[in-house]
Amino acid sequence: NYDLLSFLRQVMNSYRSRLFRIASELTESEVSDLKFACKEHVPAGLLERVCRPLELFDQLEKLNLLGPDDGGFLGDLLAGINRRELQDELFGREGGNARDSTLVLIQETLKDHYKNEIGWLQPLTWNESFRLHIKQIYTNLELITTKQHSSSPSRKPLNSYEELFVTSSRQNKTKRILIEGKAGVGKSTLVSEMAYDWATNENLAQFSMVFFIELKHVLGRISDAMFDLLPKDFPITCEQLYKYVQGHQEQVLFILDGYDEIKPSRVGDVHDLISGKILRQSTVILTAFWRVE
Prior knowledge:
Elements: H1 4-8, H2 14-25, H3 28-37, H4 44-48, H5 53-62, H6 72-80, H7 84-90, H8 101-117, E1 120-121, E2 132-133, E3 142-145, E4 154-157, E5 176-181, H9 187-199, E6 209-214, H10 222-227, H11 238-247, E7 252-257, H12 270-275, E8 283-289
Helix pairs in contact: 2-8, 6-7, 8-9
């Protein structure tokens, strides 16, 4: 099996960094197209085991079809799916997406985690064999707004959760969003779908990093909760991760699920994040049981 972590340890190499950046931009359907284009060059048995872009790149390297000085084959594949900007990235030409290697490392690891951990749900706790893909579950959305000094809130159905990020003011972006409702109405499912969509490049492209945090598991500092989403041997420290997020706040989305489930003794700086006392330029989505006073 392809070892993602062994690939991460080599990310400082410019060639590896370019492959990471390319992989993070490819959708699942584009990976399928690339696999189809490789069917005459890669044995069918190997292609069947490929699920992620980096796994495909690894197979191409083993077959001597890809290397630091030989990107022609992959370049042609990228051009064939109309991703010439990724072809430029592969060859280090201007116009490629020149994101730094730290961001790519964080992104690829978070996306891999969300695809594996959030993509499938077990609705019946007593039946482990019965699972549903998150895309098979639909949650109706309704935006409820209350004007100051008014006891009658207005209601507006939403076509998509993306409308949550739209504000009537052109100058101010929505930074703090509360999703509340009765238990079982689908709050957690909705925000899980957000994280999954970001991981599969379907939505939320305006955010470079998405941290999906279940508040019932928070033990104190929000930085620790962020770091807990990453592997134990992740090649940067918790402090380095937090400093990086501090420097890129506007690109960060925090999804905090289950405000009512957090233990009072373990609140830590969660309230500071919600209120904007820390990381105020980041965007925060909070789910809660009915209304948070």
